[in-house]
Amino acid sequence: MQEQYLTVAREGVHETEINRSRFLCALAPAATEREAQDFVARVRREHPTATHNCFAYVIGADAAVQKAADDGEPGGTAGVPMLQMLLRRDVRYVAAVVTRYYGGVKLGAGGLIRAYGGVVGEALDAVGTVTRRRFRLATVTVDHQRAGRLQNDLRAAGRSVRDVRYADAVRIEVGLPDADVDAFRGWLADATAGTATLELGGEAYGDG
Questions:
Q1: pLDDT band at 1 (very low <50, low <70, confident <90, very high)
Q2: Domain Impact N-terminal, which positions (predicted)?
Q3: DSSP for the chain, written as a single string
């Protein structure tokens, strides 16, 4: 399982002109293949008169799902170089659509490959990427008297507090790197005089 991956920080569009053709690269985070497909369809609807709407997407921290399409460009000159750029930059859970408005000058196969791959790289730089790290979900259960202080201590220690639920006791969900679990147990015992319990859950990816 991957320890971390990059994804795009937000949805965005970057435009460039190459030999009078306009290339617009739209990027968006996509948690599932369906989200990626919906994004591709939306961009196509926004540019119905474009010469081509080529796409590539990568889903899964391990890049398990990879799809690309040339949308009428010569085979392998658009979608594949777009996909290769996403993979080379280690970007995951992302969809890219490059919309081309033809400007009357043929680029040739090599020119197309450089154009489609290049505009994706430029768009990644323009939109920005964020790192998602693998962590263990852990639930801390503590009494109401200590809960407020513990939340402050957790945040002061740089821990990712993901959720807080109040019931007969207070349950605080945090994200921990696997390597930190043992050290966190010790810290928690010290911080709560041994009154808090720690329950480990599944794994997820996030900023934590």
A1: low
A2: 20-124
A3: --SEEEEESS-EEEEEEETTEEEEEEEEE-SSHHHHHHHHHHHHHH-TT-SEEEEEEEESTT--EEEEE-TTSSTTSSHHHHHHHHHHTTB-SEEEEEEEE--S---HHHHHHHHHHHHHHHHHHHH-EEEEEEEEEEEEEE-HHHHHHHHHHHHHTT-EEEEEEESSSEEEEEEE-GGGHHHHHHHHHHHTTT--EEEEEEEEEE--
Instruction: Judge residue 64's burial from the number of C-beta atoms within 10 Å of its C-beta, 0-12 exposed, 13-18 middle, 19 or more buried.
Output: exposed
User: How far are the Cα atoms of 75, 135, 147, 196 from residue 151, in angstroms, in the given order?
Assistant: 55, 19, 6, 12
Overall size of the chain counted in residues: 208
pLDDT at 156 over 60: yes
The tokens describing 72, both together, are 């009428």
Distance CA 164, CA 146 (A): 13
pLDDT digits (tens, 9 = 90+) for 16-55: 999 999 999 999 999 999 999 999 999 999 999 999 999 9
